[in-house]
Amino acid sequence: MGVKSLWSLLTPVAEKMPLWELHGKAIGIDLSGWVCDSENLNHNISQKNMYLRNLFFRTCNLLLIGAIPIFVLDGEPPLLKYGTIEKRINGNKAPIKTNIIRKRLNSLQKQCELLLNIMGVTCVYSHGEAEQLCAILNEKGIVNGIVTQDSDCFLYGARIVYRNFNVTGNGSVDVYCMGSIEKNLKIGRNKMIALSLLCGCDYDEKGVLGIGKDTAIKFLQSLDDDAVLDRLRHWRNDPVLNSAAMDIKSQTNEIKLELKIRNKAIENKSFPSEAVIEEFLKVPNYPEVSAKWNLPDINSFIEFALTKLCWEREYAIDKFLPLLTRWHLMYDDKFQANILMTEIVKKRVNKGIKCYEIKWNNYEITSIEPQTAVQRRYPNEVSIYEDMHSTSSRKIKKKITNHDNNLFDITNTFSSMNISKKNKQPRKINEAKENVKGPLDQFLMKGKVKDDSLTLSDFECDTVDLDMSEIINGIIT
Cα–Cα distance between 60 and 69 in angstroms, integer? Predict the structure, then answer.
């Protein structure tokens, strides 16, 4: 959940982004969010272990667009969260226990970890909540952004958060940038922590009774982010507020609003909770993490898919092979993948990216790969392929050009021929006879003479069918 109403507050600055824009970025992912999403949808679906299936296809999508996912798994929950967890599991019936262990979540995480290791993807455990380590990795610049549904990631220090991850169609994600939030909403990390104290969060579900999001934000936006937490800490003994509380006539609207919130807040003797503030601001030790994609293990995946997903061998190979071929093209400098390209079949365009369709040894299927990736691993083969196709293109172009030139000559030949009957002057027979020079002229002169002035149309001759295409072909030849 995170902080109550925080997502609705941040919605105006969210931007929808296509997934392909994550290309080249390292992405921290709160695994529990994806597991919970799949578990909530699995009630009406017959697919076995839907959370593993969804994890596989979502991760494939990221890897194939060129992103490097780093999955963060939950560790032990903070003591502050025990009450919240107990209520989620047992409702209000059972008493709070300090030895609560999220057994089912831990079991699901282990299976997810096994699958991700087979895919060559990095997994790391957080000391506490996964979103805490995700936020630290983001704040330290180890990952470019984080995927989570928990809004308290901002309170832990996250700068760029991807929410509502969707792989349908071309895929999309909602992007929340802390820089935009600070600029446009005038809300920083400390104000968000103050909001969690006033309105409630996973570590203090109730917050201040009677104070809603709009009232709290209206008050917080009037303060500097660096000063807001100290302001809450000194509410009980603030001489200015105490004096203003005694003099109603001198109160401004801002003072009235703050007094209203303060008076409700200090009814709780432990307000503000230093434990909650410390949980969000502390920087625990965190493991070294590198953004890296290791060699996928296709043989282990076939066995895993058979037992955990109930997939047939051929189907498992078909779905996993693109990962192996892409890793080979991008990272396999020592040719560890035991796979080689045998042929560039043809050029393709996939989601706007220029690609080749590639045939591989050992497998009777092809894959679609970006031209840049193929060029990186097989520069000579690509050069030969491009030369062959460019040579063929030149031959075709030359043939078309010669054909056009022939047609041009034919056009000129016919245009120079005067075959019009308009304004033709009749010739006398004697003059025509004198001009008889060849067999064609003799053939035309066989007609009977009607008078002393005959034209060409007056001659009787045998019918001759002339095929224009034969004439043209003869001229071209």
Answer: 10
Contact 59, 17 (CB under 8 A): no
C-alpha to C-alpha distance for 185 and 187, rounded to whole angstroms: 5
Distance CA 43, CA 57 (A): 19
How far apart are alpha carbons 379 and 48 in whole angstroms? 43
d(Cα 339, Cα 324) in Å, to the nearest integer?
Answer: 8
Peptide bond connecting 272 to the previous residue in cis, omega within 30 degrees of 0:
yes
What SS3 class is residue 225?
A: coil
Going by C-alpha positions, the residue among 218, 199, 202 that lies closest to residue 210 is 199
Alpha-carbon Rg for the chain in angstroms: 40
**What does the block give as tokens for 115?**
């699958």
Task: Give this prediction's pTM.
Answer: 0.78
Per-10-residue mean pLDDT for the chain, 477 residues long?
A: 89 95 96 84 69 96 96 87 67 53 84 97 94 95 96 96 91 96 96 96 88 93 94 91 82 90 93 95 88 95 96 94 95 90 92 91 83 95 92 54 49 44 46 48 46 41 42 41
Q: Are 374 and 356 in contact (CB under 8 A)?
A: yes
Q: In the block, which residue shows the tokens 């079949």?
A: 345
Taking alpha carbons only, the member of 394, 389, 393 closest to residue 371 is: 389
Q: Using CA atoms, how far apart are residues 179 and 174, in angstroms rounded to an integer?
A: 15
What is d(CA 399, CA 393) in angstroms, rounded to the nearest whole number?
10
User: Which candidate, 440, 437, 430, places its Cα nearest to that of 464?
Assistant: 440
Which among 120, 170, 167, 122 is positioned nearest to 324, based on CA atoms? 120
